[in-house]
Amino acid sequence: MELTxxxxxxxxxxxxxxxxxxxxxxxxxxxxxxxxPVSSATIRNEMAALEKKGxxxxxxxxxxxIPSQLGYRYYVANLMVTSLDDPVRDSLAxxxxxxxxxxxxxxxxxxxxxxxxxxxxxxxxxxxxSKQTLQHVxxxxxxxxxxxxxxxxxxxxxxxKIFQFKSEVSGExxxxxTNFFNKYLVGTPICDVVxxxxxxxxxxxxxxxxxxxxxxxxxxxFMRYNKEKVAVRGRSNMLIQPEFSDVNKLRSLLNALxxxxxxxxxxxQEGNIAVQIGERNELIQIGDCSVITTKxxxxxxxxxxxMVVGPSRMQYSRIVALMDYMSDRIEEAFIGIGDNEDxxxx
Length: 346
Description:
3 domains, 3-stranded antiparallel β-sheet, 11 strands
């Protein structure tokens, strides 16, 4: 779609202003915002031309225009300039350099930050255990009724799990347990570990004195580990968006955020429109909603996603810049990829 330079500036100004204030933008407002002198009549003619191209829509309650769904897609693909305010960037750098985070912690932390800064709903998907295999297990006793287990996968993902035993377990049994798991479970897909452990329980019983106590603790931990790491924050932010004043529409959206399975079905449903933004970002339009997704790698093969969910009227340039920056920090910390090798590692 070809636009004149003047049409591009007018259209970009309309999108930026509407996403900021949620009010239709009229020609008189634009006159004071454009970087060049132009009459109100000329602006109206250009707005009519943009409407004819399908990029703008006229509301019933105002003479102003708002971006259409096609308009938002054109904007992110052709006109958007990502920017992140220096104070926000500095604050994020400070947050991520404060301490050493595990991957679980950074999933939660990233979700909190995205929701707080954007005032929208954020979703962060961490590692999918179904694509990983167990590589090594190490157990360290805390006392006779608890221990820390270090679980490492073939993709370099590390989990620390604290096991609470119902009765005392000796250090000798913990050592035997570690050797047993490393001998029989290494190479097993994480999603199959519990099944394989149950199959090997008779052999475990013959090897370990308190096998039933350790067995129960490990099965419980791996069942939790086997679930996809999903964090959702800011559901209540939807209540303040004028686009979701329709209770039924809001209920449908909140239902989609209840579980990763429902969320995937919602974002993958037929009729959605996806627009690639650069190499790792994507805009998914789902009715009146938009989902911005950004991929990040926590190992050479492991991949996760940052997502922001909200109305089509969102500040795309700021949100994409924010998600890009956070993805860079995650990758820099876990696999040494980033735009600043001098920043501290978590």
